[in-house]
Amino acid sequence: MNRFATFVGRRGHRSCNLGLDDDEESQLSRPSTSPSNSIANSQIDFDVDSNLNSRFTHQSSPTEFQEGNTQLQCDYNSDGSREQARYAFNYSTQDDDEESQISTHCGTTNISNRHRRARNDDEDASSRGSKPSIESATRLPVSTIHIPALVTSILVSISAPDILFYGLLYAGFDLKRQQANNEKRRVDWFKSFYGVEPSTVSPIFDDLRNEYPDINFKVALMTMQWLFLYPTYPVLSGQWKWCEEFIGAKVIDYGNKFAFIGRRKIVFVLKHKVQIGRTVDCTTFMVFEMRLDPSSKWFDYKTHSCGLKYEFCLAIYEDRVVWMNGPVAPSIHDITVFRGGDADEDVEDRDQDALYFQLEEGEMCIADSGYSGEPSKCLLAKDEHPQELKELAARAKNRQETFHWRLKAFNILGGRFRHGKNTKHRMELHKIVVEAVVGIIQYDFENGHPPFKV
Fold it and tell me: Per residue in 82-105, pLDDT tens?
């Protein structure tokens, strides 16, 4: 049985054909068991009437991003009988101008009457042997029109169970599917969309809320999905129900927020002073061609495409990223990035912010052959070294490469970065993204997923 519905909101009045079957409608009437205990109570009223129209009335507080009571009334025909059911469940309404801007119309679109009129015209046309109307030939079948039963909600809790529940809810896993699967499966689902487990997201959101009290955790989750899966804005718009202009501005804004808390995690000083306490290496990420600055300096010989190079330094005996430098052109050699200039340049003329000048006297970094030329600062394994030292260097370098792999597990770094209006803008945005991803991985190190021990 088809249902027709009218949605009345703060910004206008709208009607549409729900096209729900009995199973989908029965899901509407099922009470929710949301795990959040800080969510406002709302109520749904179902009134079965003798006509074909169903009316959904949404009333909420005009205050943006606040909790409020919401009432949903349904009148529909079911064999001429009248029934009434009332269900209460917990959720928090998101009544905000940012989401309402996807509604470009403020008026009434009576699809139910138009559908009924077109259907009658088709029946008359078929009885006369003539062709159906153009409207009926071009309109979508009722069975393909789907309106989710989920009322828009906002995540207000930073506990790992709530983040898991709402993260999967936003990803398309409804309450029934979540209840039917164990926690391990649900956590795997969550990681497939956001890159890390909810236990890692919880402290990230805690620090974001402390730094930015007006943070919207739903937008933060969308930004994490953008970083991990790197979908296009239309794909995000279809899932998160925001327009592409809003999404484009928000993912950059929240990417900056993630990068800010990520930079605070990068501290160069070690907890315990040791002579060989760090590893260093460079890696290159692919980007779109620098069309306003075409040059062979952007060519990366490993990927045979345009790229940007970064230098990373990890603590050997701590689970920490202690240094990040970049972006630079891939044609610049690793040892040149380390020194802050060419070997023939005077030390005073080099970049004093380079890693070379951050190491104290006697401190050394384990590095690969790309750093040969600075024996006082970089330790390269050689045949004459003791076996224990060579094994330590090998494991430390493998650990560094594992970190690079974890960076590129985020598609925004593992794939080709496409943002940026010009060369400078692209490099600025790419650095923000790298800092955000490094910060997320550092939080993951601290919450149960550290790199392997050397």
Answer: 443 333 333 333 434 444 443 433
Instruction: Grade residue 273 by pLDDT with cuts at 50, 70 and 90.
Output: confident
Task: Express each pLDDT in 410-425 by its tens digit.
Answer: 999 999 999 999 999 9
Asked whether the beta carbons of 446 and 261 are under 8 A apart, the reply is: no
**CA 195, CA 409: separation in Å to the nearest integer?**
8
pTM for the model stands at 0.70
